[in-house]
Amino acid sequence: MEQPQAWVPTDPRARPSRDQVVKGLKGVDEGGPELVQLLTPEGERVPDERFDRHVADVTVEELKALYRDLVLVRRADREGNALQRQGELGIWVPLLGQEAAQVGSGRALRPTDMAFPSYREHGVAWCRGIDPTELLGIFRGTDHGGWDFVGRRFHPYTIVIGNQCLNAAGYAMGQRFESRVGDPDTGEATICYFGDGATSQGDVHEGFVWAAAYDAPLVFFCQNNQWAISVPLDRQTRVPLYQRARGYGFPGVRVDGNDVLACLAVTRWALEECRTGNGPVLVEAFTYRMDSHTTSDDATRYRLADEVELWKLKDPIERVRVHLSRRHGVEPDFFEGVDAEADELGERLRAFCRAMPQPDPERMFSEVYAAASPQVDAQRAEYLAYHASFVDEEG
Ligand SMILES: Cc1ncc(C[n+]2csc(CCOP(=O)(O)OP(=O)(O)O)c2C)c(N)n1
Ligand SMILES: [Mg+2]
Prior knowledge:
Elements: H1 18-26, H2 60-85, H3 99-106, E1 114-116, H4 122-127, H5 136-140, H6 163-177, E2 190-195, H7 202-213, E3 218-224, E4 227-228, E5 231-232, H8 244-248, E6 252-256, H9 260-275, E7 281-286, H10 305-312, H11 316-328, H12 332-354, H13 363-366, H14 374-394
Parallel strand pairs: 1-2, 2-3, 3-7, 6-7
Antiparallel strand pairs: 4-5
Helix pairs in contact: 2-3, 2-11, 2-12, 3-9, 6-7
The protein binds thiamine diphosphate (TPP) and magnesium ion.
């Protein structure tokens, strides 16, 4: 039987045949059993035959920019946590430890790509140009979203575990149907973030199936932070998560999620696969949730301190700092400058949060449906009367 030719996209409106897609898939291996790592925890750059080419153009200035991202994202996260502790936010979802997975993958995206986060992706939001102040409304309970989802190409946070995989699969199928896939320069892709625990949800399975069946340009980006609240990874799977992709017929790669350079390289590769019509792809970023699940959780009740201590040695920021200073002679004043910028960001976030106005009590009802709804109208009237009763008492 004649072998199909691998698909080489020429026309941006072109679509590969099924045979060409299958041929392409077979040309992509599983990523191997090993973790893809380019920067060791000690800050040494290690070669990687397969992925080096995806970061060959990264200059020292760009590495410094990634370092700055990591530090500022961590500071914004720590401020969010502190603001909750001071009663300024109802809840905060910390990303501590996952900065590299989020910044590496977030910086691999192009402006035209679409991202679907879960609820912990403050670092990806940062890379999409969303100011950390824009995240505060959801956690203070004054807003349902907070940013321009379409303009920033960053979907609202999704609390229902795994649900965004269906939204993302549908969106990526649309990119495929509208022939916005195929050209490596102009092709679009979608990335979907979810956790290790989410992989046990039906929605994620269904998202995998739909994306595979329609060759959707979708990077499933699983941040395996080893815990789903108090449930450890071994309650979710018998096999490494990246290997699950094989069962759906697309490639899976496990990357060191604490290595920003490796996350950038692997995500660039995965997005390129998708852009050129060879999606979907699963990336498992192997990382660790250094803090509790949320500020409502106490991780010391179910995990041992030495596990956390071990992961501290793999810190995502420290390895970049060591690499920059030892290998590239970056001077201390650069690091001090970034710290000063982080202090300013912290101050700005605190001041913004304390000054946030109370939303109009009517607002939570005004954008539920496009057309009037008698049920919502009744709820609005009841709530406004309840609200007014407090004003009367005070007055
Ligand atoms: C459908 C659904 N079930 C249960 C929950 C409660 N819940 C919130 S977070 C969470 C754990 C998710 O763990 P994981 O997918 O690993 O993501 P992580 O929080 O570690 O980033 C659960 C069970 C929920 N929000 N939605
Ligand atoms: Mg998890």
